[in-house]
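Teaching assistant's notes for section 4

Start the section by putting this record on the projector. Ask students to predict, before seeing the second block, whether Carboxypeptidase regulatory-like domain-containing protein will look compact or extended. Collect guesses on the board.
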Amino acid sequence: RVRTLFPGSYHLRPHLKEYTFHPSAFDVEIEEGKTLEVRFNVTRVAYSAMGNLTTLNGRGESGVAVEAHLIGADLNKGLSPFEASTTDEKGAFRIRGLLPNQSYEIFVRDSNMAERITPPSIAIRVGTSDSRDMHFIKFEKVEFGYAVSLRVEVVTHEEGRSITRPDYHSTVTLALAGDNDQVLQTTSVGMARFSEIRHLRPGRYTISLVNTSLDPLHWRVSSNATQVEVFGDQWDTLVSIRVEATRNVSVSEQDTTTSLLGITAAVAVVIVTLNWKKFNAGRGY
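Reveal the predicted structure now:
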């Protein structure tokens, strides 16, 4: 709605990124004291990529450029090679104008953060809807010493299937030990599947699973210990940890299975007995 127009002739040309309008322009005559309604047919021709940039503790990073670069752009066809946006006060971004049936690479454009953002980029294929829930994490530079950033993946195995479970990340607690196997720090993993251990001296460390809140009656949990060395100018090292959780057959399930086997065996005995009696009766015994 356009308000406070003086009487006279106007040329209207609507514009909204990702949409085309028909007609593309319209000439109108505004009379004093009257309201004029003009209708346009709208067609959506492009879509958006939406997500956020936060620190490990969930604080949004504002004012940071995020770009979407067209993969395999054919400039001769007039396709825009990239679109860009800037994160708001909560770290959220929306990149508009992405073309359908095209592939894009999304990444944070900030030279000061280039080595402190994970993932480095996110590849998407645009269809006929917006791409959502992209999450970039910034690792803040430590005041002194070194840091080890932990990226955790929890995979469950049950009924012959392996499933990645993001909702299980918060069940994991990891420990960092020095050369003498003495535990120096422990850290819990949040829902974002990342954690960080800071203020380390140069040296070699071992990271291992120390605890999980998954019920041991139902799950058998394991994870290989990972060694990492921090030194030199690499103040932040990213380490990936994979936690395997295999479903156990619970006591109640075992009891149920045993009971079913017992019932099946009892029924089989009854059937055999009845058939034997019929057989003997037929022979005149």
